[in-house]
Write a structure and sequence with these properties.
This protein has about 700 residues and is of the alpha+beta class. The chain contains ten helices and 37 strands. InterPro entries: Metacaspase, Pept_C14_caspase.
Length: about 700
């Protein structure tokens, strides 16, 4: 293989296609029969990935290990069925030993900076008693054996400790509910197999301890690794074929080839990035795959957990640029209905009549991407329908076909929730520009949230004064000085912040609101409605999912700070996707502890002992993805504010990023009310700070 000098590191690849599987099933007479649960698509997935990697090997140094097993002709002895066997030679069977040997080889030979790509295509399973998850592999004696989530995570943890950059792809599912059927899909098989304790023969979680893993006390010691722990990556990234309680499918396409739906769109999307010579980050790849699913196949919602900014198959590329990859609003055309769908809806502040500029997703560098415009003709809860208002310039005609993702940028917002600002008459000319801030309203009859005045004796210095001091904090109510150069960007930032702060579902479904409770644990708000905590202590939210049908709920957490920033707290925690899954569990509930701190000033600024933040909680009926930083701290004349970090993001039109609505058991996304918000004001006091309640 040739090696590109720009990428001297090795990319280790382990591709597993576990297509041979059997399951014991009780017969009416009390005996057991063997049911063949083999998947035709698993090995086809491996073949397609091998072909893709062969092309990549021209520019990337690859080390590829493929393990696969496709079903051979079934045989029987004296009329009794036996376990199906792979058609391939035993050396490449997807067995427990072969998989572990491939992982150990990477741990022993890999060097810091190397990349690791592990792709599993097959069945997932979950124990009934404790929810432990595992991957189903082939076993010559039992037919099926399991690679537990605990062992897999320990192997990956050993790689991360050596400085390897790991990407794990799981084209399977872990929900037993999928056995209810394929929801009317033809030629579809589910990628879940019922747990059988007789097949759980590999429980030695010490397997990778001898390879130098030095886990923290209590870390990775669970004999039973439940799904939310597996999907909480520390130093690695996971792509999953579907949400934790969805179904992953094996699909037979019109050409007769059977593939895993996720693996099919995975290879298709990677090939598209290579053809267009576009940088392939985890996030951009996920968004492309997601748009493909929405165009053709609503039954699965692909998920991304962990580092979104790593460049796949570019080991030396920057991987810790938090917030460096902007979240886009995807646009796609549904194949069956022909509707043009915007992946943002009422939950994002989208309103009927809003106008967007559309362009092809990840256009080839150096080329001018064709563009068109579209208006919102229907805004639903999590998505909206668009209608093209232009089809290109001159003789060029724009056609948006199913399976071709586009991206959208908001041009004009008609939302009635724009932010009213009162400006003195002598400075209105500074605001008469072609592209004013999207959420600025200078003509509203509502009480203004900001007053804009010119500094005495000058026409180039301005003061912006908040008027509503109770919606966020007294710290953020101080006046802001700006110049003619920074006036418009500052107004744009402030109005985007207030738009997000006021974002709410004004017509939530009563049934959905009844399905959960969300309270603050062990704290009572003061007379001003603000909770007080000490610096470094936890502000704990307690949530209970009371869903009657047992459906999970999804929670996203944001912090609005006095620096006029909006942060995604789940993404800041370095683990999991941008939402937390809350299982239906009666009255037990789930605690969400948030450590509160008073930030230290930057640049020699004055030390503060009190700060006020707002914790904004989104509760959703469907999985959702959110940008790492919705809005960075306000930057004026180079002042970066406090040291909690943050990065400017130019798109609150991307607020809540790519809320991944789907057509599922709770009905079409065109239904209303299946999301809501709760906000909690929190005052944090450092030692020596005094309570500053607002009366």
């Amino acid at each position: 293989m040739t090696t590109d000098s720009r990428h001297p590191n090795t990319y280790w690849s382990v591709i597993i296609g576990s297509g041979v599987a059997s399951q014991r099933s009780p017969a009416a007479d009390g005996s057991w029969t063997t049911v063949d649960r083999s998947l035709d698509g698993a090995v086809e997935d491996v073949i397609a990935i091998e072909s893709l990697l062969a092309n990549l090997s021209k520019t990337v140094k690859l080390d590829i290990k493929s393990l696969k097993g496709s079903r051979a002709t079934s045989r029987s002895i004296a009329g009794a069925p036996i376990h199906p066997r792979p058609a391939e030679e035993a050396a490449i069977w997807p067995t427990f030993n072969n998989v572990c040997e491939a992982l150990i080889r990477i741990i022993q030979r890999g060097n810091p900076g190397d990349g690791v790509y592990i792709h599993f295509s097959g069945h997932g399973t979950r124990r009934h008693d404790d929810g432990a998850v595992a991957l189903a592999l082939y076993d010559q004696a039992c037919g099926t054996s399991y690679l537990s989530g605990t062992i897999l995570r320990k192997a990956i943890h050993s790689m991360v400790e050596k400085g390897l950059l790991v990407t794990l792809v799981l084209d399977c599912c872990f929900s037993g509910s999928v056995l209810r059927g394929a929801h009317g899909l033809e030629n579809a098989k589910t990628r879940f197999i019922e747990y059988d304790p007789e097949c759980d023969i590999h429980q030695d979680d010490r397997l990778f301890h001898s390879l130098g893993s030095s886990s923290r006390p209590g870390e990775l010691r669970d004999a039973a690794l439940i799904l939310d722990r597996l999907l909480d990556p520390r130093g690695y990234t996971i792509f999953t074929a579907c949400g934790p309680h969805e179904t992953a499918y094996d699909i037979r396409f019109q050409d007769g080839i059977c593939r895993g739906a996720f693996s099919y769109f995975w290879t298709k999307s990677l090939a598209t990035f290579r053809q267009r010579r576009a940088r392939c980050t985890h996030q951009s790849l996920h968004q492309h795959i997601h748009a493909c699913f929405r165009s053709y196949f609503h039954q699965q919602t692909p998920m991304l957990f962990g580092n979104k900014n790593h460049h796949l198959f570019e080991p030396t590329a920057a991987v810790n640029e938090v917030g460096a990859v902007a979240s886009l609003i995807s646009v796609y055309r549904e194949k069956q209905s022909g509707r043009l769908i915007l992946e943002a809806g009422q939950a994002h502040g989208v309103h009927h009549g809003d106008e967007y500029a559309l362009s092809p997703y990840q256009a080839e560098p150096g080329l001018t991407a064709p563009a068109t415009t579209a208006k919102v003709i229907a805004a639903h809860s999590l998505t909206s329908e668009l209608e093209l208002t232009s089809r290109g310039a001159g003789t060029q005609t724009i056609v948006i076909t199913p399976g071709t993702p586009w991206e959208a940028d908001l041009l004009t917002s008609l939302s009635p929730q724009k932010i009213p600002i009162h400006a003195a008459p002598n400075i209105m000319n500074f605001l008469a520009i072609d592209s004013p801030p999207l959420y600025l309203d200078l003509s509203s009859t509502e009480p203004p949230l900001f007053l804009l005045t010119a500094a005495p004796g000058t026409s180039t210095a301005f003061t912006i004064t908040p008027t509503n001091t109770t919606s966020l904090s007294t710290a953020a109510a101080t006046s802001i000085s700006t110049t003619a150069t920074t006036l418009i960007p500052t107004l744009d930032h402030l109005t985007r912040f207030k738009f997000f702060e006021r974002l709410d579902n004004r017509t939530p479904s009563p049934a959905f609101e009844y399905s959960f409770s969300l309270d603050v644990a062990d704290l009572t708000p003061g007379p001003d409605g603000v909770y007080e905590v000490s610096h470094g202590s936890d502000f704990v939210l307690h949530m209970t999912n009371r869903s009657v049908d047992g459906s999970p709920l999804y929670v996203a957490l944001f912090m609005l700070s006095p620096a006029w920033e909006v942060r995604n707290l789940v993404d800041d925690a370095e683990g999991g996707d941008s939402t937390i899954v809350v299982e239906a569990c009666g009255t037990k509930g789930m605690e969400l502890p948030l450590e509160m701190t008073v930030p230290s000033p930057r640049g020699g600024g004055l030390k503060v002992n009190v700060t006020e933040d707002v914790i904004k909680v989104f509760v959703l009926a469907r999985p959702a993805g959110f940008p790492a930083v919705v809005l960075g701290p306000l930057v004026i004349d180079g002042d970066r504010g406090d040291d909690r970090g943050g990065q400017q993001d130019d798109g609150l039109e991307r607020v809540l990023g790519v809320l991944e609505g789907q057509h599922g058991e709770r009905g079409d996304d065109r239904g209303k009310g299946w999301w809501c918000c709760r906000s909690f004001s929190v005052r944090t006091l450092r030692g020596g700070g005094e309570s500053a309640s607002v009366g």
